[in-house]
């Protein structure tokens, strides 16, 4: 058995998180991950049978879920078009090694691998996007900002996403990671259903105010003692 989080939209169009225990299929093959996804979705749908659920990762069977993977979702910038993963990893600034902007031109998987090594012996102190600084808190602010901008810029994806109201990322483990593409999708849908997308994505300061309440990050504890970020939209 394993446990993962399903991010879903409730009757008030706010997004919620639910931990789900399901059968895990071990192995590194994509087919094994897809079996785990099917098990996770089946378990969730037993309690929420009307939910329209989408896996968002490189393990997704649906084309939309694959396109929305941070490795594939492209964001247009003044310097060119890059994946969310490239922008996120290259946007990190470390105490000793400084800005990782050079990774912007590195393939997504390689950029993530390079940062993983830095995380072991250096301290993350902030984020930077083409000279614009982002704070460490709220901890998901920078990632969610670039991810939602990516959705907004891809009209076809933005039109298809509202067909779903629940999202998973089989690779996301909250014990090891903070940012999650499935969570970002649920935030987008919550904003969409509440007619707040235009205001939120106007600029980064508006995004901070609408999504996070423009306040310092607050935390709540899950039943297992782990910390999870409490967003204004939650």
Description of the molecule:
With 234 residues, the protein is an alpha+beta fold. The protein contains 9 helices and 12 strands. The strands form 4 sheets. A 4-stranded mixed beta sheet has the order 2-1-10-3. Strand 8 (124-129) and strand 9 (132-134) form a beta hairpin. Helix 3 (84-90) packs parallel to helix 4 (108-121) and helix 5 (141-153) packs across helix 7. The chain is globular. It starts with a strand and ends in a 5-residue tail after the last strand. 37% of the residues are buried.
Explain briefly what this protein structure is.
The chain has 234 residues and is α+β, with helices and mostly antiparallel strands.
Measured by DSSP, the beta-strand proportion falls in: 15-25%
- Largest beta sheet: what is the strand line-up? 2-1-10-3
Mean residue pLDDT: 91
| Number of separate strands | 12
* Uncertain spans: 216-229
Task: Please provide the ordered H/E string of secondary-structure elements.
Answer: EEHEHEEHEEHEEHHEHHHEE
Distance between the termini: 28 Å
Look at the helices and sheets and give the structural class: alpha+beta
Helix amount, in percent? 25-40%
Largest β sheet strand count, sense and barrel closure: 4 strands, mixed
Number of H/I helices: 9
Instruction: Choose one word for the global shape.
Output: globular
* Radius of gyration from CA coordinates: 17 Å
